[in-house]
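Protein entry
_____________
===
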Amino acid sequence: MTIEVDLYQEIRQLYAVEHCSQREIARRLGISRNTVKKYCQGACMPGQRKPYQGRIAPVLTTEVIEFIHSCLEQDKQENVKKQQHTAKRIYDRLVEEKGFMGGESTVRQYVQQLRQNVNNAYIPLSFEPGEAVQVDWGAAKVYIKGVKQTVHLFCMRLCFSCDIFVMAFTRENEESFLEGHRAGFEYFGGVARKEIFDNSRLAVKEGWGTHVVKEQQRFMALKAHYAFATEYCNLAEGHEKGLVEGLVGYIRRNVLVPLVHVDSIEELNQIILDRCIKYRSHTIRGRSQTVGKGYETERASLIPLPLYPFDTAIQVTAGVNEFGIVRFDGSQYSVPLHLVGKNVTVKGYGTTVRIYYHNEDVAAYPRSYTANTVQYQLSHYIDLLEKRPRAVLNAKPVKQANIPQEILRWGQRLPAGNRDMVKLLRLVVDYGTERILKEIKALDISSPTIELLRSRLTDSDDNGAVDNVIPFPNDVSVKEVSLNAYDVLLAGGDKNHE
């Protein structure tokens, strides 16, 4: 029975002040003893309901409850948001696998109660200078040479000062992961004692979180070289490295909006690096000093860099075929033709490929991740073209060199045809495209020759001014000469000396 406040007051007055029995109160007020029992001790007030204390249905046995918990824990470990157990799926599995005889609504209510009780509270953390650094990956869209593509952002953040380092890579692979570490350590000028990272397969071969069984071999070598320890986050627990989680969004919003247009990944990384340096003047909310001031304090506590930097490249030995081509990771790269038939060392970094012969750096390229692409350098083939000039117009290295049409049209005007064209390309290799363009524009003559261009390049200084040129005066004075002396000579001599 629900009562009004005035009746409740009378019940409480009779019971607490006049010390009447429940029977007597019921008789005086004309209500049931159950109503008096409910309200006399003040355990319940009219108009107020106690929260429902749900009970576990008898059909939810210990075995069934453990099965439901295991399904939700499996979702947490797999961390695939679009493929998780629904309450209906759990019910269907209980029926199929456990012979469950209860209703679907019973399972739904229990699963809903479990999910509502998830604790989303977090503990604020504090770190000592040099104690830890957090690492994470992100992705963003940019335009490189006019092509819209995804770049992968390696993000590193010191936990004490919150100083940041970000570097873009074409791929999120092992060599990029290691190269990002090395570049980050060099940017900070030292190494934090502990790295907090997620369970990426770039670092972890087996296990997860605190249950890491085995790390990747090359990452273990990097750890040993730079003398830091690791701490891995639990699955789907991004808040455990919350400092670096927001860094990806910061770079996207403050550097890459609107979408950046660059000619190379190196140009993009310079833009990002400039922002990282600028961030040191930033003051984080709740802190009294700038990030840069905190970094100055923290740097003294970082582990010093080793004398020799870690080589982050994938290294292979490859043979040079008859076209001067080396294969690496599905792509092909040219080398000087005197290396045909020899073995060279190829080092693949995150964004570049470098080729060595007997420890001599013989070629370097932007790394290609597109299968079966070939990159040439014209300088590798120019000696052979001088011997076989007829191939110049169809040579792939010439076409891929992207020689400006203005230079090629000028070369087609040269008198010796293909031979002169090869000589022109030699000058392009030696002096560069911009210099040749400048000189041929200055040689605005109807019959150009390669010798005239070469002489200008030889005699010109860095500013393009021509040295060793005899000045030609504007006004030339000519002295009149008398021809009478010649008449005398023709007549037989000087009569005055006869």
Q: What stands out?
A: The longest helix spans residues 62-78. The chain has a mean pLDDT of 85.
